[in-house]
Amino acid sequence: MISIALTKGRLEKESVKIFEACGYGIEPLKDKGRQLVFHDTKKDIDYFLVKAADCVTYVEHGVADVGFVGKDTLLESTNRYYELMDLQIGKCGFIVASLPEKDPFKKNTHVKIGTKYPTVAKQYFKEKGMDVEIIKIEGSVELAPILGLCDAIVDIVETGSTLKENGLIVFDRICDISARVIVNKASFRLKKKEILELLDDIGQVIGE
Ligand code: PRP
């Protein structure tokens, strides 16, 4: 038996599609209501639905053998798992954005950056040789430069519509991100056959 922690929300539908294409018994997850744990109707697999950061926690603690989670979350986490596959779903990018008149690269005084991703933001500006103040925000990050909490934001952009609808523009694209398969280190030793079989099935479906 293996257990898989799936990230709720944006990645959920695309993850389910992958299992469906693999021919797994994922039907219970398609009509799920508020249920959070599911057993595959064809394979010996349990699925849990969790928030992105918790997906990493469950995998690191071995409660889930495998996790489907965005690279954005992994870049903010400690590295106590194996990252074994790029799922090619949930594709988006990290960007630096603000109001057109608030270019953070042209500001000579103290620069404040609002973000849900302090590690990524800190690292990026360090590489640019800029000493910035990072302000951690939990959501609706686009609001922060508009209300004057910060000069610019580091955030993820997918379609670009949130930036556009709030009058923000991109000053730099930091990197591309997508969803990854992570695996608990002990599980990979103890359940290697099952996990490699799973990765093989997924790989065939996504063309890896
Ligand atoms: C993310 C991100 C942006 C938005 C980008 O937020 O922080 O706000 O999605 O997507 P777009 O380019 O397709 O518009 P999310 O929707 O996860 O919610 P949040 O506001 O709670 O952070």
Automatic annotation (TrEMBL):
InterPro entries linked: ATP_PRibTrfase_cat, ATP_PRibTrfase_HisG, ATP_PRibTrfase_HisG_short
Q: In this protein, which residues make up the domain named ATP phosphoribosyltransferase catalytic?
A: 51-202
Q: What class of enzyme is it?
A: transferase
Q: Which UniProt keywords apply?
A: Amino-acid biosynthesis, ATP-binding, Cytoplasm, Glycosyltransferase, Histidine biosynthesis, Nucleotide-binding, Transferase
Coiled-coil residue spans: none
What is catalyzed by this enzyme?
1-(5-phospho-beta-D-ribosyl)-ATP + diphosphate = 5-phospho-alpha-D-ribose 1-diphosphate + ATP
SUPFAM superfamilies assigned to the protein according to its UniProt record, in alphabetical order: Periplasmic binding protein-like II
Q: What is its EC number?
A: 2.4.2.17
Pathway assignment: Amino-acid biosynthesis; L-histidine biosynthesis; L-histidine from 5-phospho-alpha-D-ribose 1-diphosphate: step 1/9
Where in or outside the cell? Cytoplasm
Instruction: Cite the GO molecular-function annotations of the record.
Output: ATP phosphoribosyltransferase activity
- Role played: Catalyzes the condensation of ATP and 5-phosphoribose 1-diphosphate to form N'-(5'-phosphoribosyl)-ATP (PR-ATP). Has a crucial role in the pathway because the rate of histidine biosynthesis seems to be controlled primarily by regulation of HisG enzymatic activity.
This protein's assembly is summarised as: Heteromultimer composed of HisG and HisZ subunits.
Q: Which family does it belong to?
A: Belongs to the ATP phosphoribosyltransferase family. Short subfamily.
Q: What is known of its domains?
A: Lacks the C-terminal regulatory region which is replaced by HisZ.
Report the NCBIfam families cross-referenced here.
Answer: hisG
Its protein name is ATP phosphoribosyltransferase
- The species is Breznakia pachnodae
Q: Which gene encodes it?
A: hisG
